[in-house]
Design goal:
This protein is an alpha+beta fold. 36% of the residues lie in helices and 21% in strands. It is built from 13 helices and 16 strands. The strands form three sheets. Strands 1-2-8-7-3-9-10-14-13-12-11 form an eleven-stranded mixed sheet, sandwiched between helices. The protein has a three-stranded antiparallel sheet with strand order 4-6-5, with no helix packed on it. The chain is elongated.
């Protein structure tokens, strides 16, 4: 005997948690800030910029991955959100293009043509929203600034071939507490060191403009140059940068006679500190050296022994060797940030053909990601079913996907949720 099926035309929304989420975000003032900061669109436009960013945020919170989901999949459900009219995919894409700034080009000494995109207006909005939501606090004195470049494969019209052996972009991303605070796009053929000092200067200045001082900065060896270190040192009290290998440095390392054996992350290392002037001058920095046996037991080209060496350059002369290494290794959290942006917030699915337009999308999705974490932090204080560290997919399953419908009672609309989870705790 076959399965029996019956049908109903009731407007049941499978994403009932969207109503509650949007209410929390609206009360935070996020949408008002976006409208005020970005200004009005042209007089004929039916939708404002806050509607555009709101749409992309709600698409993400529904499990969608592109603007077209608004038109083809999610419109029936998003249109049930009170005081919100859903724009079409074409409108969302067109409005993002309006926010783009022109690409900048520069030719290096080697003759390579580099393309950059600097969008300060969108980055100011990114930081301002973090401040408004309390995710960054003005005047706080213990913020750590992380910077890295991440290659994004993209078969776009203007994407250039990278040493990563694919066409794509190579944006620079600054973050604090694993939250993006500055994004500057560059094409795939640009070396990460090229004009990085200018990029970092803009990022630091933007944070200082919003009253966010930097205590510490962490970066990998892509930031190891005299010019970059000078910028980092002038904008943060302390810095920790992975040092590049060089023969002079390893000649000094070979002379180290005392190594301390320590356990870091369930592995044994030998560590030591030296003073070294890395750029040919007289100014020295502390180098925290760690070494471990080479698993392949091959001799090191510079030292001639069978160890793998790593060095962290810092101006911090008070933290212990082990603490410096552990603190530096914590920047690996930025890899989780990139994974989240690529897979949860669609950096891996850039919608436009040109670098400067995709910059706008990347910053908007970083804004959406930060708002999402504000949301999970807020809800986690009210309900046990949500934790502040949840990824997007888990949050959708735990909070968003609950059947709901609007009912009218005594001239008032009431959201009826088909669950025993006390959602009302988060909106009262």
């Amino acid at each position: 005997m076959g399965m029996k099926i019956t049908y109903s035309k009731e407007k049941i929304n499978p994403f009932g948690g969207l109503h509650v989420s949007d209410e929390i975000i609206t009360k935070s003032g996020v949408y008002d800030t976006i409208s005020h900061h970005l200004g009005e669109r042209n007089p004929q436009a039916k939708y404002g910029y806050s509607d555009i960013i709101r749409s992309l945020l709600l698409v993400s919170l529904s499990g969608g991955d592109c603007a077209e989901d608004l038109t083809y999949h999610l419109r029936p459900y998003l249109s049930q959100i009170k005081k919100f009219t859903v724009p079409g995919a074409d409108t969302v894409l067109r409005a993002q293009k309006e926010l783009a700034t022109e690409k900048e080009k520069a030719q290096s000494h080697s003759g390579t043509m580099h393309e950059f995109n600097i969008n300060m207006k969108m980055n100011r909005l990114l930081v301002r929203l973090l401040c408004d939501l309390g995710q960054l606090k003005q005047g706080a004195d213990d913020y750590t600034f992380d910077y890295d470049n991440q290659f994004i494969p993209a078969g776009k019209y203007d994407a250039k071939y990278s040493y990563k052996k694919a066409d794509g972009y190579f944006p620079g991303i600054a973050s604090i507490n694993n939250m993006p605070v500055y994004i500057e796009n560059r094409n795939g053929n640009s070396n990460v060191k090229y004009k990085q000092a200018e990029t970092l200067t803009r990022a630091y200045n933007l944070l200082e403009e919003h009253g966010i001082p930097i205590k510490r900065s962490r970066m990998d060896c892509g930031s190891f140059s005299r010019e970059i270190v000078s910028v980092v040192e002038s904008h943060s009290d302390l810095f920790y940068i992975r040092a590049q290998r060089c023969n002079d440095l390893f000649q000094i390392i070979k002379q180290i006679t005392h190594w301390e054996t320590v356990e870091i992350g369930a592995k044994l290392y030998e560590v030591a500190s030296i003073e070294y002037a890395p750029f040919g001058g007289t100014k020295t920095y502390r180098y925290v050296i760690s070494r471990e046996p080479n698993p392949q037991r091959q001799g090191d080209l510079f030292t001639g022994d069978a160890f793998v060496y790593r060095a962290i350059m810092t101006n911090d002369r008070y933290m212990s060797d082990v603490d410096v290494i552990v603190f530096y290794n914590a920047r690996g959290e930025s890899e989780r940030l990139f994974d989240e942006m690529n897979n949860d917030f669609n950096w891996s699915k850039l919608p436009f053909s040109y670098l400067h337009e995709n910059t706008v999308f990347m910053i908007i999705m970083a804004i959406c990601r930060n708002i999402f974490h504000y949301l999970t932090n807020f809800i986690s204080t009210k309900l046990d079913c949500v934790k502040p560290y949840y990824r997007l997919k888990k949050f959708i399953f735990r909070f968003i996907t609950v059947p709901a419908k609007w009912i009218k009672r005594a001239r008032e609309y009431i959201l009826k949720l088909y669950t025993d989870t006390p959602y009302h705790f988060v909106v009262t």
